[in-house]
Amino acid sequence: MDAIFRIPKWPAALLLAILFLSACSEQKQDSGIVSFSGMTMGTSFTVKWVDQNTGRVAALEDEVHQALLDVNQSMSTYIPDSELSLFNKLPAGGEVDASEALFFVLSLAQDISQKTAGAFDVTVGPLVNLWGFGPDGRVIKAPKDDEILLLQQRIGFQKLVLDADRKRASKQAALYVDLSAIAKGYGVDVLAGIMEKNGIDNYLVEIGGELRAKGVKPENQDWKIAIESPLIGERKVQDVLSVSDTGIATSGDYRNYFEENGVRYSHTINPTTGRPISHQLASVTVLMPTCAEADGMATAFMVMGDTVAYDYAVKHNIDALFIVKSEQGFIEKMTPGFDKRLVN
């Protein structure tokens, strides 16, 4: 199937943004839509839903904040005593009884790794740190080849072993697991679960631009999501999506990087080469049933590059948008299913 190509109105990669997103954390109600926002995982979050009952906002806000604290305490590599950090400190051969949440995310990550032939790999953490994109802090110089080769001995999702019956995780090497490419999406799904547990069927929840939508807004309208061109010093909308009942995630090489001698090094590390990606795919947005799936697959697509990733998306019926660098600027390449979601 031929890809659908479009030259963007503004030459930049994309960033998912909610049209109504506000930086404040005030509760508000507008035409039956209630929302609150706050900070988590080093970024902002927003919870928005259709409701005439504002009396339960405070209770929902408390529940959301506690749930996000729990996700962080389980999966953060920035919290020294988090469940994941303690696992990472174990030597080769170490194993632990994992919480239900951590085991679920590890299992999903391993499933995506299997399906993408290792393009997605949560054991790439040591290389992420080596290149200066992890909790160890920034670097200004690319690491040496021998440093990369040494750490590659510790990389490989096959070395992370999960026992589904006992909910145990073990490591066959001195693994350092980094869930930053999937935990935020999982956090969004947790927020969605809170909404549904409380009988709310029309909502839009997001963490740092990763989203999940269900149902409709008042007057039976789909939720509208803006795709933003991240131009320096200004904000412009590149595309608008009409969405319902889906998770949405974006990955790109345009926000988190460093430069040395005119070379830009992306934060997205190819597990096979041990180096930042160097192809022409600048950004990808993925729609899947859950945000955790979309989050992980967006990273896998960034590693694959636009040609392989597009073919994979079409074969597996995944709606996706790719922003590709070209001599003429940035070009949009999207699957037919994604194209149908655009608001003209």
Automatic annotation (TrEMBL):
* Residues that coordinate or bind Mg(2+): 181, 295, 299
InterPro entries documented for this protein: ApbE (IPR024932), ApbE-like_sf (IPR003374)
List the Pfam families hit by this protein, alphabetically: ApbE (PF02424)
**GO annotations of cellular component type:** plasma membrane
Keyword Cell membrane appears in the UniProt entry? yes
* Annotated family: Belongs to the ApbE family.
Species annotation: Neptunomonas antarctica
Instruction: Name any one GO molecular function.
Output: transferase activity
E.C. no: 2.7.1.180
The lineage, from the top, is: Bacteria, Pseudomonadati, Pseudomonadota, Gammaproteobacteria, Oceanospirillales
What does the record's cofactor remark say about binding? Magnesium. Can also use manganese.
Q: Which domain of life is it from?
A: Bacteria
Translocase found in the keyword field: no
Compartments annotated for it: namely: Cell inner membrane
Q: Which residues form the signal peptide?
A: 1-25
Q: What is this protein called?
A: FAD:protein FMN transferase
User: Could you tell me which SUPFAM superfamilies the record lists for this protein?
Assistant: ApbE-like
In what way does this protein cross or attach to the membrane? Lipid-anchor
The protein's required cofactor(s) are namely:
Mg(2+); Mn(2+)
Gene3D superfamilies from the xrefs? ApbE-like domains
